[in-house]
Amino acid sequence: MAALKALAEAQPELAPAVALEREIVDGERRLQRRLGTPWLDVSNDDLTARLARGERLIEWAQLGIDWPEFRLRLRQVVDVLRRHDILDAADAARLHDIGRDPGLPAIVERWYDEGAHGGPAADTSLTDVLGLTVRPFLTRAAEVVQQRVSTDTWPRGTCPMCGARPGFAVVAAPGVRHLVCGRCHGRWLFDARTCPRCLSSDRQRVFSAHDGVYQVAVCDACKRYVKAIDVKKAGRPLLMSVDTVATLALDQAIAAQGFEAD
Ligand SMILES: [Zn+2]
Ligand SMILES: [Zn+2]
C-alpha cells in the first residue's frame, strides 16, 4: 500500500490506476483476513506426481470456494471498476446478474480451465472481473502449494499452480528468470532466452527500461512479450500490484509495435 502511494506521488499520471489498485488490494486484504489460510487436501507425494505428469497443481474443486464470500467479492469488484469508469453501466448491471446467477460456480470453473489457453477472451469484462474476484482466494492457495513442492523443473510456459499465462517475471541474476503467474502469482524458473508462449529460443530480444529496473523480453517469432523486474537493480522484490501499474506506459509502447502480452 505504501509502495502504491509512493508510485502515485512519483508519477502523477499513474494516479488513477494506482487509486483503482489500492481499492482492489484493500478489499482483498479484508477478505483474506476473513478466509484465513486455505487448506488443500492433497499430499506432497501427490503434488510431486502431478508435476512429473505435467499437470497443474491446483484444480478448481480443491479450492473449496466459500460461494457467499465469492459472490460478495464479485459485487465489490464490479462496483469498484464501475466507479473508476472501467465498466459502463450496462456492463456492470450484466456482471451483477452473473454474480447472482445460480450457475456461477460452473461459469467460474470454465473460466479457470480455459485460462491456460490465453487466446482472446470472448467476454473480456467478465474475464477481467473473474480474474480480480478470484485473486484473493487463489493467491493464498498458490502460496501454500509453492511452499510444499519445488516447481523449478517445470518445463512449461504456463503456471504449474493454476495453468494460466505468466503476467510478469523476476530476474534475480543475469540470465536467471522466474516467471510469475498473472492469475495466482505462483512462480517457476524458466529459461531467460526462451519464449514462454511459443518456446522458441530464436528471435528473442531483451531491452531494459527505467534505468534497468525493468526488462522486456520480446519474441519476434510469435510477437508476444513478458515484462520482468531486475530485483537487484530495484533493491526490492516484485510487488505485483505496484509493478503492473508502474509499467503500464511500457505496455502501451510495446503494443504500439505490434506485440501482445503473453
Ligand atoms: Zn497460476
Ligand atoms: Zn514466442
Briefly, what is this?
The chain has 262 residues and is of the alpha/beta class. It has helices spanning 2-10, 15-35, 44-52, 67-83, 89-100, 104-114, 124-148, 231-234, 240-246, 248-255; strands spanning 166-173, 176-181, 187-189, 204-209, 214-219, 224-230, 260-261.
Task: Give descriptors for this structure.
binds zinc ion, alpha/beta, 10 helices, seven-stranded mixed β-sheet, globular, 262 residues, 47% helix, 2 domains
Explain this structure to me?
The chain is 47% helix and 15% strand. The chain is α/β, with parallel strands linked by helices and 262 residues long. It has 2 domains: 12-148, no CATH class; 166-261, no CATH class. Strands 1, 2, 3, 4, 5, 6 and 7 form a 7-stranded mixed β-sheet that branches. It starts with a helix and ends with a strand. The relative contact order is 0.12. Residues 142, 159, 161-162, 164, 181, 183-184, 186 line the site of one zinc ion.
